[in-house]
Amino acid sequence: MQKLDNNLLHGETSLMISVKLRDLHYQDKEAVTAMLRDPQVMRFLGPRRALAEDEADSWFETALANPTRFAIVEAKTDEFIGFCGVKQINGVPDFGYFIRSEFWGKGIAAKACELAVERLSSEIDLEIVQVFIADDNLASQRVAQKLGWQATHNASKDGEYGHYYRITM
After folding, report:
1. Using an 8 Å Cβ cutoff, are 163 and 157 in contact?
2. CA-CA distance, 3 to 42, in Å (whole number)?
3. Predicted pLDDT of residue 6
4. Which residues of the chain are modeled with pLDDT < 50?
5. For residue 94, which of 56, 135, 128 has the smallest C-alpha distance?
6. How far apart are the C-alpha atoms of 113 and 165, rounded to whole Å?
7. Buried b vs exposed e over 96-109: b needs ≥16 C-beta within 10 Å?
8. What is the pTM of this model?
């Protein structure tokens, strides 16, 4: 009898995709703009709605010219999956990630966050980095729990209620 992965017993899938972080490339444009136009992905990001085609194109061009977060890509094929890392928002370093919806539920967010935190730990004081997770963003709460991040306090951000978390390694 085959031994079951304990994570499978709890409704999670094991990480089948190996990921790496890299800079954004022009060849990522189609995947990035499709992600930005996906209402599921954008539910907790930016304007809290899918971007129009011209907005997504503009967002991509800005991100390509002024990189802030790492691109998450499949390690073997280099296929774009999402973004992870720190971006200055109103002068405050803000940690975040977002992933194409077709890659959800595969453990990619947690792995990408681990890789980003490992890289950033020598470049930035993680104690000053904010991580806000909305109360109804259950998937991101599970990622924070998996990583051992602790909620520090209740707050609201951009009209949403949630918690700020402390990054731990």
Report:
1. no
2. 38
3. 40
4. 1-13
5. 128
6. 13
7. bbbbbeebeebbbb
8. 0.88
Enter the tokens of residue 121. 């730990």
Q: E strands of 38-101, at which residues?
A: 70-74, 80-89, 92-99
- Long-range CB contacts (< 8 A, 24+ apart) of 44-49? 44/134, 44/137, 44/140, 44/160, 45/96, 45/98, 48/158
The answer to whether the beta carbons of residues 85 and 95 sit under 8 Å apart is yes
Long-range contacts, 23-30 (Cβ 8 Å, 24+): 23/67, 23/70, 23/71, 24/63, 24/64, 24/67, 24/71, 25/71, 26/64, 28/60, 28/71, 28/80, 29/60, 29/64
Instruction: Look at residue 15 in the predicted model and tell me its pLDDT.
Output: 52
Residue with tokens 């995947």: 31
Strand partners, 156: 161
Residue with tokens 């503009």: 58
Tokens of 85: 């890392």
